[in-house]
Amino acid sequence: MDGGGEEGEPLQTDALVKMDKIVEGEELRSLLIPDAKDLPSIPPSAVESNFVRYYAAVGLAPSHAALREEGGVTAVNFNVGKSDRSEMKVTGKRKRNAQHFDAKTSLCKVCANGKEFIVRCCVKGSLLEVNDRLLKQPDLLNSSADREGYIAIIMPKPIDWAKIKDSLLSHEDYKKLRGLS
Predict the structure, then answer these.
(1) For 109-137, how does the pLDDT look when each residue is reduced to its tens digit (9 = 90+)?
(2) Torsion-angle region of residue 97: left (phi > 0), alpha (psi -120 to 50) or beta?
(3) 139 to each of 86, 106, 113, 163, 167, how far by Cα in Å?
(4) In 3-state terms, the chain is what percent helix, strand and coil (to 5)?
(5) N or C terminus: fewer CB in 10 A for the chain?
(6) How do residues 12-23 score in pLDDT, each as one tens digit?
(7) CA of 42: how far to CAs of 31, 45, 48, 147, in Å?
């Protein structure tokens, strides 16, 4: 008998099959399309969505001395040592032309209230990019250091990452250490 089961088993009608498909579709839709009331008022940045933030106890973190100076950061200079970091251009999958830095290598200088602060790399790795926007808009460090005001992107080698990860603080640990909310 078409559409039937074994003897004594009720037949499943087309209406029930369609209803199951509608329920499955609604469940799938609810998984794929979130309810607007459940979304944050400000969407997360690409950094927050795709990366885990780690902090070294030193560096230009939200509690850095330069950010606490009156007026905050007023200038950023990537011309330190023998080269201008802002002139460096990394290309390709293999990151050609990337400069390799140790943790104590100077990355840039920031000026605040007439004082100059040297920002160090803090991790061993390859410099992939510096934020050229800081040259014209140094106040981005004051207003959104963890978003548009980032200084640079450093990529540690996988073998080095395993060594340094334990010496860095997670975002939550950093907030606890600095007494931030």
Answers:
(1) 999 999 999 998 888 888 888 899 999 99
(2) left
(3) 17, 20, 13, 34, 29
(4) 35, 25, 45
(5) C
(6) 555 555 555 566
(7) 21, 9, 12, 13
> Does the model's pTM come out above 0.70?
no
Could you tell me the two tokens for 136?
Answer: 């014209």
**Tokens encoding 52:** 């885990």
Outline where the chain has alpha helix (H). 14-32, 46-50, 65-68, 133-136, 140-144, 158-164, 171-178
- Residue showing tokens 């450093």: 154
What does the alpha-carbon distance between residue 73 and residue 68 come to, in Å, rounded to a whole number? 9
